[in-house]
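In response to reviewer comment 3 from the previous cycle, which asked for concrete evidence that the modeling workflow produces usable outputs, we include below a single protein chain processed end to end. The sequence was submitted unchanged, and the resulting structure tokens are shown without manual editing.
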Amino acid sequence: HRLAGHRIARAGVARTFHNIRLVAGMTALENLLVAQHLPLMAATGFGIGAVLGLPGYRRAEKAAIEKACHWLEVTGLIARADDPAGALPYGAQRRLEIARALCTDPALLCLDEPAAGLNPRESEELSALMRTIRDGGRSLLLIEHDMGVVMDISDRVVVLDHGEKIADGTPAEIRADAKVIAAYLGEGEEEDAA
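The workflow returned the following structure tokens.
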């Protein structure tokens, strides 16, 4: 439910989903332009400027295309800009979804299991992309089961076991935490069952 007067875009937060939610029939570029619909609509006077071809709309459209192309470059998808999103390989679709979220200029990017279904090479590419995003000044909130990805990009890790927080610390602290080791390697389960 919505809070009166609250808009998530103004809050500077964007997210991706565990299940990819691209518009499969639109091109990669079009998916990134759709993400920028609020500023484009405002620049067009909510459609009138676009219909009349006013200069403000043309400038806004050019800026939106430039931003989309920037994120297609960063995600390694510029050569696929005109391909339908649904025709892209799974790993490329994951990166496109991240690029789409970045087109909203978020301060915080929330990623829900972005490495789900990726092979090891794709997971490494995803980690490199997330480091680039993080190093560019954006904060990331990552929900992920691929511990290689988590440990590779995180400054701080919070570990949950069945919804209960069992650890909170740096990646090095988490790797050495007895509760984390027991929960994720299965130690102690036999004792609990007895």
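The first strand starts at residue 13 and ends at 15. We consider this sufficient to address the reviewer's concern, and the full set will be provided in the supplementary archive.
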